[in-house]
Design a protein that fits this description.
- The chain has about 475 residues and is α+β, with helices and mostly antiparallel strands.
- The chain has 13 helices and 13 strands.
- A hairpin with an 8-residue loop joins strand 1 and strand 2.
- Helix 2 packs across helix 12 and helix 8 packs across helix 12.
- The chain is globular.
């Protein structure tokens, strides 16, 4: 066993909690401790690579290679995506899978320090902690694989490497390909600012592109000969912004102007905008989506130009599973809080100071299981699409100080140092221990599946994506 990087105080705390665990769960903790140097190095390599949607060639290869080195059978390039893969070990039932993400966000490169300074000016950064996400999930699968290999558990464990979560939502195409069809229960986690078994849903979302096509002309000599695609775009965004007053509070509309014309002295004959509509439920999202599409036609009519709407992709809200959440909660309580050094707390407070937040440091406590809210806020994830096809158990673990702005340089900084590493290792243990429960307890698996069936009801899942392959070569 390799020498542990954990401080003595934390090792003692883990020892005390480990005494309450059964032998298989202790083995999970011991496996992740034994692999931790390799796991930290793997996470740091992905952090440094910082590759955006569908470009995660290094990150995907690092994870897939490590899975193979640890005895998994790996199928690469699944569902038409070069950076998607499935790693499998074992045979028979139950089949338990775990998700791993590894894409970064553009423009937020950052050094692993508590003051803002780009590592690669203009480059990408892991502002959502996906370097930790994929590594922790694979670590949990490896720990379970070792128990199957030793004959302590029986069944199949899968790790699914899922690209492009931040933009195009690669899991949708993996779902369409049937990659969870044989899975009994899926697990996922996400980096956050507190520790909790996550029993909240997320927001449904749809992305589409609107293009306007006009007639170019000299902006001064003969503007009457031009029909401005930029005018249509501005009229469209004005309409969207007036519409905001008349939508439900749960709805969110965002847009990104991708092309508004190239030079000032030409009436632009082309413009393009990326639009995103969200709501806590698909049923609320779809009418808004339909109306905003009609508004594009109205803008085109007013500017006397042509227009085209293209669906990019859309995702479902997450289907919560409280039965699975309760099982995860028990394992969080077995693990206890994360313990931080004085230097780590100081790092967290400096991050908070730099981002204008109260300097309270890291939140290390295990949160009680919360009531599931009908209309949660927050973001969206393509884990939602997985959750409508297989029961999903979700987890959140602290990897950044309280109130840290997400998708920012501050999260990038924490993900490249020990605060992020500790959260990653903790998440791996919690998921591995919960998988032990699922492998050992068929009644728990059936209870999780029964709640899934009840919550899904008569809904027939239909992916919100256009026909054809994933948009690997789409305009970024």
């Amino acid at each position: 066993m390799k020498k542990s990087l954990l401080p003595l105080g934390l090792l003692f705390g883990l020892f005390v909690h480990a005494q309450k665990m059964g032998p298989e769960k202790r083995a999970i903790v011991e496996s992740i401790n034994a692999h931790q140097q390799e796991l930290i190095a793997l996470s740091d390599s992905i952090w440094a690579a910082a590759e955006v949607a569908f470009q995660e060639n290094i990150s995907s290869r690092l994870l897939a290679d490590y899975a193979e080195e640890n005895g998994f059978t790996v199928e690469r390039g699944v569902a038409g995506m070069p950076t998607a893969f499935v790693a499998t070990y074992g045979s028979g039932s139950p089949v338990i899978s775990v998700l791993g993400e590894f894409d970064a966000l553009p423009g937020i490169s950052q050094k692993a320090q508590p003051t803002k300074e780009a590592l690669d000016p203009g480059g990408a950064g892991h502002g959502c902690g996906h370097n930790l996400f994929g590594t922790a999930s694979l670590a949990s699968a490896i720990a379970v694989k070792e128990l199957i290999e030793a004959g302590e558990l029986s069944g199949t464990v899968k790790f699914l490497g899922t690209p492009a979560e931040e933009k195009f939502f690669g899991k949708i195409w993996m779902v369409r390909e049937g990659l969870w069809d044989d899975v009994d229960v899926n697990l996922s986690w996400h980096p956050g600012a507190e520790i909790e078994a996550d029993v909240q849903s997320t927001l449904a979302l749809v992305d589409f592109k609107v293009e306007f096509f006009g007639q170019a002309a000299h902006a001064s000599a003969d503007p009457w000969n031009g029909r401005s695609a930029s005018d249509a775009l501005e009229l469209y965004t004005t309409g969207i912004n007036y519409y905001r007053e008349h939508i439900q509070p749960t709805v969110r509309i965002h847009y990104h102007i991708q092309d508004g014309g190239q030079v000032v002295n030409v009436v632009p004959d082309y413009s393009r905008i990326w639009v995103r509509v969200r709501d806590t439920k698909r049923e609320g999202m779809m009418p808004v989506y339909e109306h905003v599409q009609k508004m594009a036609e109205g803008a085109a009519i007013m500017a006397n130009v042509d227009y085209k709407i293209s669906l990019i992709s859309g995702i479902y809200e997450t289907l919560v599973n409280r039965t699975g959440g309760e099982a995860m909660q028990k394992n969080l309580e077995l693990l206890g809080p994360i313990e931080y050094t004085e230097a780590e707390q100081e790092f967290g407070k400096k991050i908070q100071m730099a981002t204008g937040k109260p300097q309270v440091g890291m939140d290390s406590q295990v949160r009680p299981l919360k009531a599931t809210r009908e209309n949660p806020g927050g973001g969206s994830t393509d884990v939602g699409d997985v959750s409508w096809n297989v029961p999903n158990i979700n987890l959140g673990v602290t990897v950044a100080p309280k109130d840290t702005p997400w998708h920012s340089w501050a999260v990038v900084a924490c993900g490249g140092m020990s605060i992020g590493h500790k959260g990653m290792l903790y998440a791996a243990k919690a998921m591995g221990m919960t998988m032990v429960d699922l492998f050992e307890n068929p009644k728990l698996v059936e209870a999780v599946k029964e709640e899934y069936r009840e919550r899904k009801g008569e809904t027939v899942y239909e992916p919100i994506i256009p026909e054809g392959p994933p948009p690997i070569n789409a305009e970024k």
